[in-house]
Structure formats: structure tokens, C-alpha cells
Amino acid sequence: MGTIDPKAFVSGMALLGAGIAALGCIGGGIGCGNAAGKAVEGVARQPEAKGSIITTMIIGAALSEATAIYALLIALMLLAKA
User: Fold this and answer.
1) For residue 67, which of 9, 13, 25, 6 has the smallest C-alpha distance?
2) Which of 5, 17, 34, 36 is the one with CA 20 to 30 A from 60?
3) pLDDT digits over 35-48, tens only?
4) Cα dihedral 18→24→29→32 (10° resolution)
């Protein structure tokens, strides 16, 4: 067996990690979709509570998107390393 170039190995692992971290962005999309769907159901059932439901949905969507932004940030940092 030959030796492995350490720089190539670190670069390859950084690219692999960036791809895996980018998969975390999928969770943000799923979370926002679920939040919006449930908010629509809630407003359809209780139209008088629309303001409260929409406010809660926006807060939940923001928290869900924050995890996707963190995953994207990690992916970009790993890409810069490669």
C-alpha cells in the first residue's frame, strides 16, 4: 500500500463533511412546511385565532430555519477548508 497525502485526505474529508452538513438544510424546509401546513389547518378550524396562530408559526419557522442556516454555515466553512 502506498502512502496517503495528508493534504488530499483532509481536503477530501472536508468536502465529504460539507456535503453531509448541507443535508441539514433539508430539515429546515421540512420544518417550515409542517409549520405552515398546521397553521393553515389551525386557521381553518378557528379563524378568530388567526393572529395568534400566525405569530406562533412565524416564530417556529424562524427557529426551524436557524438550524438550516447553521448547517449551511458549517458546509461553507468546510468548503473553504478544502
Assistant:
1) 25
2) 17
3) 899 999 999 999 99
4) -140
